[in-house]
Inverse folding.
């Protein structure tokens, strides 16, 4: 009789334990770079838009993550961040009222958005210019592909010597182009005072062309630091920004 009571107790408890397991949403997916390569050590956060609870997970060496949510939210805000990349965010809305396993693959872009605010060929875009002008000081995202290369140090197996050399190149590029972007801010401020933000477009385009040249030269210098096999596995978005005249003469 005693064993029967224990057995009945277990049967009574078991059905109540199962819903807690089956009532959890599972958010899973793959994080890649612009070239489609998995990105390890990226921080993925998922926020329940029902309760406001946020959970975090770091991608594994294969770029994969898996986040469990005990509550069933109507939708989730998914954000992925990694040093050297611009953050990516997506909102996922559930399709059923039951718990789901949602697959959300995320892909980083090649460079920060601020790179294309004004095209280097001299054309201007007034809304984009105003966007730079309104950005708080120090919050302009300055493209730095050399920093992107450093962010791949583990997958590239960079040596200590390579890391030091690339860090110097990255810091130098950030300083040079940082001054250019601050000059652009000053020009836009003056242009706004005159009542026409677009009148400085030609000067801004020339400045961005100079910044683009700085970037191309920095990437070419980075190519000389890296071994050929390391250079070849970099995302095309980085390699394609090398200085054309120098790349064409490379073997």
């Amino acid at each position: 009789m005693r064993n029967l009571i224990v057995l009945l107790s277990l049967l009574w408890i078991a059905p109540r334990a199962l819903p807690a397991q089956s009532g959890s949403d599972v958010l899973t997916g793959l994080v890649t770079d612009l070239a489609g390569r998995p990105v390890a050590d990226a921080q993925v956060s998922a926020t329940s838009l029902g309760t406001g609870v946020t959970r975090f997970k770091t991608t594994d060496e294969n770029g994969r993550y898996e986040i469990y949510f005990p509550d069933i939210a109507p939708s989730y805000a998914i954000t992925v961040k990694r040093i050297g990349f611009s953050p990516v965010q997506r909102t996922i809305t559930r399709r059923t009222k039951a718990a789901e396993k949602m697959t959300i693959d995320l892909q980083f872009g090649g460079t920060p958005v601020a790179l294309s605010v004004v095209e280097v060929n001299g054309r201007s875009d007034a809304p984009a210019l105003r966007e730079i002008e309104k950005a708080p000081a120090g919050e302009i995202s300055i493209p730095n592909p050399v920093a992107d290369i450093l962010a791949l140090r583990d997958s590239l197996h960079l040596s200590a010597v390579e890391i030091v050399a690339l860090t110097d190149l990255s810091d130098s590029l950030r300083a040079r182009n940082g001054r250019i972007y601050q000059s652009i801010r000053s020009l836009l401020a003056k242009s706004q005072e005159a009542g026409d933000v677009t009148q400085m477009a030609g000067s801004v385009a020339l400045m961005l062309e100079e910044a683009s040249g700085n970037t191309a030269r920095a990437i070419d210098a980075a190519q000389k630091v890296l071994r050929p096999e390391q250079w070849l596995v970099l995302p095309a978005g980085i390699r394609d920004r090398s200085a054309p005249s120098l790349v064409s003469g490379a073997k």
